[in-house]
């Protein structure tokens, strides 16, 4: 019980904000992971995990029944839910995927702005644990467990300075990676390979052009990413509140 109490006090308490140069380095590393052709196919799995998780959360919040989530080795994924085939619930569920990683990053940035980097790591672990309950294929299971194990190692055993740096790094990555997936969506649609994409399914449901839905997804994603980046930069400039 004492160990649980101490852990809770650490999570609820504040940790030192990393120096500005450390935050700048984490942002640069995150950006390199996103833009480098060698690393993007690997780290994109993290974005897909958040994307499909966002579909699942939106489905549950709109009253649909989540049937399961599958993550594939080509970094694609699928969240299956049951409920009305049309209507606001289905629209919101489809709309949530692409902005999902940026919204997770925004939430993490808001917590980091209060100086609680450890809370960000534990929060991400909790989200992965909940997601694990909905995974329905072997690769997805392996992917979530591997990601969770790496995050848990930092959360439980790393020194505070490393934990804070990791929290900033993961948050920057989610904020910077999310817009790239929307760009890839439109590229895929232009080449005629995205006809079952979220944007095209939204177009089929609403009668509005798929390109319009891509623009909506881009605005939501860029808005969340930009707000998160401002929070991170503000926390670094002012230090702990």
* Unreliable spans: none
Rg (C-alpha, Å): 18 Å
Structural class category: mainly alpha
Distance between the termini: 30 Å
Outline of this structure?
The protein is 73% helix and 5% strand. The protein has 241 residues and is mainly alpha-helical.
Observed structural traits:
241 residues, mainly alpha, two-stranded antiparallel sheet, 10 helices, 2 strands, globular
Question: What does this protein look like?
Answer:
Strands 1-2 form a two-stranded antiparallel sheet. The chain has helices at residues 2-12, 20-35, 40-61, 88-95, 100-112, 117-132, 138-157, 160-190, 198-206, 210-238; strands at 65-71, 77-82. By secondary structure, the protein is mainly α.
Could you outline the blueprint of secondary structure elements for this entry?
Blueprint: H1 2-12, H2 20-35, H3 40-61, E1 65-71, E2 77-82, H4 88-95, H5 100-112, H6 117-132, H7 138-157, H8 160-190, H9 198-206, H10 210-238
Antiparallel strand pairs: 1-2
Helix pairs in contact: 2-8, 3-4, 5-6, 5-8, 5-10, 6-7, 6-8, 8-10, 9-10
């Amino acid at each position: 019980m004492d160990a649980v109490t101490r852990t809770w006090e650490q999570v609820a308490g504040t940790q030192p904000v990393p120096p500005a140069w450390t935050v700048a380095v984490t942002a640069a590393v995150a950006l390199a992971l996103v833009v480098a052709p060698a690393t993007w196919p690997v780290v994109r799995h993290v974005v897909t995990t958040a994307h499909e998780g966002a579909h699942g959360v939106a489905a549950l919040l709109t009253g649909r029944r989540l049937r399961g989530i599958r993550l594939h080795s080509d970094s694609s994924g699928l969240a299956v839910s049951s409920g009305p085939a049309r209507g606001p619930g289905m629209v919101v569920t489809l709309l949530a995927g692409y902005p999902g990683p940026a919204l997770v990053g925004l939430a993490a940035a808001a917590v980091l702005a209060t100086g609680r980097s450890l809370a960000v790591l534990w929060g991400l672990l909790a989200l992965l644990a909940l997601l694990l309950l909905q995974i329905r294929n072997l690769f997805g299971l392996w992917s979530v467990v591997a990601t969770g194990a790496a995050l848990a190692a930092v959360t439980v055993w790393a020194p505070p300075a490393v934990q804070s740096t990791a929290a900033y790094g993961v948050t920057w990555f989610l904020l910077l990676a999310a817009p790239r997936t929307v760009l890839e969506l439109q590229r895929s649609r232009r080449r005629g390979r995205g006809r079952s994409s979220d944007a095209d399914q939204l177009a089929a449901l609403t009668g509005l052009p798929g390109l319009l839905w891509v623009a909506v997804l881009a605005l939501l994603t860029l808005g969340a990413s930009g707000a998160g980046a401002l929070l991170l930069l503000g926390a670094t400039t002012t230090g702990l509140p």
